[in-house]
Amino acid sequence: MDPVRNPYAPGAGQRPPELAGRNAELAGFEVVLERVARRRPERSMVLTGLRGVGKTVLLNALRSAAVRRGWGTGKLEARPDQTVRRPLAAALHLAIRELAGRNEDESRHVLGVLKSFAQRDVEGKGRAARPWQPGIDVPAVPGRADSGDIEIDLVELFSDVAGLAADAGHGVAVFVDEMQDLGPDDVSAICAACHEISQQGLPLVLVGAGLPHLPAVLSASKSYSERLFRYARIDRLERAAADRALRGPARDEDADFDDDALAAMYELTGGYPYFVQAYGKVVWDVAPRSPVTAADVAVAAPEAEAELAVGFFGSRYERATPAEREYLRAMADLAGVAGDGDTVPTALVAKVLGRAPQSLSPARDGLLKKGLVYSGQRGRIAFTVPHFGRYLLAQD
Q1: What's the pLDDT at 126?
Q2: What letter does residue 314 receive in the DSSP assignment?
Q3: Start and end of every Cytochrome c domain (predicted)?
Q4: At CA 85, angle to CA 84 and CA 90, rounded to 5?
Q5: Which of 90, 127, 212, 242 could cross-link to 237 by cystine, CB 3.0-4.6 Å?
């Protein structure tokens, strides 16, 4: 079929043509926006799930919903090697500018507070250290959100930004991707700020997205985080939703999949949204005509798997050291028995490798820091990428 008309989009965070299976999350967020607009108490949100389930896509869709309601919005991606002060300042700068036309004097004051907050971030080290100069063209407001204590500063900043939004008759939504990569101090500060805003009844909502262990990260920081956020686990698509993700875009291009082809696609992809798009793109290019058949899927599968082996799986595997790769392979052997995607006991990993558990701590910690594995509960570990164990076993 015509590759120019191929509708599938297997990009990182790229919205697919059919956002299937996420209606409940979208509808739930609309309720949050409406309740906050009416000054009703509501919790911020946290989305969790493995890589490739569409958390970033959903995060962007939720942001679009807030923009349509006239809210100020900002988005940032957490990084393990960076404090939250600078990216959060940039995100809130955008949100304030979106609200600025409604109360210019108050907006300039809040921008000044934001500038004071941002300038507490320091570039360089030692004698060369200097305050970061954000592109905010108003004077800094000293004595507000600039103590240097991120928890104190963030509570003050969120209060001022949310107050501006309330005066404008709207709200502010801050979206944080890869939230599990925030440092402990930053996690604590965000929880404290959201807690204070909730108690004040101000219209600011934070929506975070991260790996499955993110709730444990938040709970370890502030015990009340279990009640502070509304948690939504984003998982693989049900069969009907996966079929819609394939068939809807195809029909928009006057093409289709037959029922056997859809069944074969679900068997290969497991319903994971990224895989649905990746296989869908290759199958479209390989199929000679519509409707796509199970035979077309069988012909396309090796090419799709080869692309995933290089770009999706292989790029991650290459980041691991030899010791870490050995640990991953042992995990794959155990996951092959327990079920690909399930958690496995770290003690069994050590047993498979014939090593003392303590001697494997550096490898395990390295994999955790690189985001290749996660630990949702003590003594157990799992891959962050679906089908990663299957990929490793196939390399044999």
Answers
A1: 46
A2: I
A3: 166-317
A4: 100
A5: 242
